[in-house]
Structure formats: C-alpha cells, structure tokens
Amino acid sequence: MARCRKCGKSGLFFKVNSEGYCEYCAQQLRDEEIVRHNQEHKRQMAMAAAAAGVKPAEPVSDLKYTLGLIGSSTLTLYANRIQTHIGKTSETIPLSAVLTFTVEEHSIGACTVTVATAQAATATMNLGYGLASAVGGGNHQYQFPRTELPTAYKMRDYIANWSAAQGAATAPQPVQQVVEQKPSPADEIRKYKGLLDDGIITQEEFEAKKKQLLGL
User: How confident is the model at residue 178 (pLDDT cuts 50, 70, 90)?
Assistant: First the structure.
C-alpha cells in the first residue's frame, strides 16, 4: 500500500511518485524550491552589491514556473528558456527558438504539452515513459497529470506574452517621410538681396533673378 512521505496519506489506489510523494505534496515541494531559489538569488545580489559598495537592486527572479511531469520529471520555465529535468539529465530550449507552446487537456489520462521549435534544441533523447523529446525534428512533447493544468496554462501565457514582446521589439519601425518645402519667391528674393548687399552679385544680376522669380 502506497504512503506519501510528506502528508502520510495512504490507500490501496493511492499514487505516489518515485520519491514517495503524492501529487499534491510534490507540487508543494516544487513551490518551496522556487521560494528558496528566489531567496538565494536575492542574497547573492545583496552580497554582490555590498562588495561593490552600491545599493542592491530589486531582485528579479529568473525562475518562473515548474511543471510536474509524469515519471517524477519536471519542465521548468525560466525568464528566457525552458529546461527539462529527467533524473540527472537535462535539456534546454531557448524561448527564442519556441514557435508554439500548446497545452492539450484530456478528461481521461495524462494531459500533454507540446513545445514546437524550428529545429531540435538538442539531439533526440530517450526520456522514458510519458516523455518524447524532438519528436518530428522540432516538437518536444511532455505528459503531465491534470492537477498540473493551472501551471501549464500559466507557462503558455507567459511564453505567448514573451514572444509578443520580442516581436514588437524587433518589428521594423515605420519610415518617416520628410517633405521638403520649396522656398517661396519672396524668400529667394531676400536671399539674393543679401548677396547683392554683400557685393557677391551685381545689381543687374539681382534684377534679372528677381524678374525670373516673379515670373515677369
């Protein structure tokens, strides 16, 4: 009979992962890991600022969400990359290489998230049950329990907003058209009058130019 190491719940059909935790406790442990990661990040920034003699900047966490996959594996979303952790093996997919991040919800069985990229981020890897990396060249599919759906949708929305922001930043700016204004005859006459006063042109040249500008 399975028993959770953290909450102590057990039952004939009670499921725990390979580390002995139920799905609820496994999610709690991942949330606690994110908190520890943020605290350590803040501590390191404070130490670096103290060494430089400056005020520490407001820390911005690089770790966003962790999705629990089937088989005690995780899919972690950072500020600009996705990383899978399968035992001691990991695979990284930059968000700049992600074309789509699709969540498939199933009423029976595991749900699926598919990360489509232009090409495989790494060589094809055998990730075990429920996991298929670089399927069809640029598709990375991962299965997860229904309890993880809220996290999966948060990851999808973050990546969609990230991609939209990157697209707006790299979009070509509209070219501003500069309309050249032709000087009026009066302005031209003043210009040539100045040349006359400076002795650059003669009175005859000025009068001829003046008639030309006035259409006489």
Answer: low
State the helix-helix crossing angle for 185-197 and 203-214, rounded to 10 degrees. 180
- pTM assigned to the model: 0.52
For 94, the token pair is 């930059």
Q: What backbone torsions phi and psi does residue 55 show, to the nearest 5 degrees?
A: -75, 130
For residue 140, what are its two tokens?
Answer: 């990375």
Which residue type occupies 41?
A: H
Instruction: Quickly count: other Cβ atoms within 10 Å of residue 184's Cβ.
Output: 10
**Spatial contact of 68 and 145, defined as CB atoms under 8 Å apart:** yes
Query: What's the whole-number mean pLDDT along residues 148-160?
Result: 92
CB-CB contact of 144 with 70 (8 Å): yes
Question: What is the mean pLDDT of the segment spanning 64-89?
Answer: 85
Degrees to nearest 5, angle at CA 79 with 121 and 86: 50
Cα–Cα dist 138/124, whole Å? 10
Instruction: Tell me the pLDDT band of 113, cut-offs 50, 70 and 90.
Output: very high
In one-letter notation, the amino acid at residue 47 is M
| d(C-alpha 16, C-alpha 22), whole Å | 4
> Rounded to 5 degrees, what are φ and ψ at 184?
-75, 160
3 state SS of 53 = coil
Q: What percent of the chain stands above pLDDT 90?
A: 11
3-state helix, strand, coil in the chain (%, to 5): 40, 25, 35
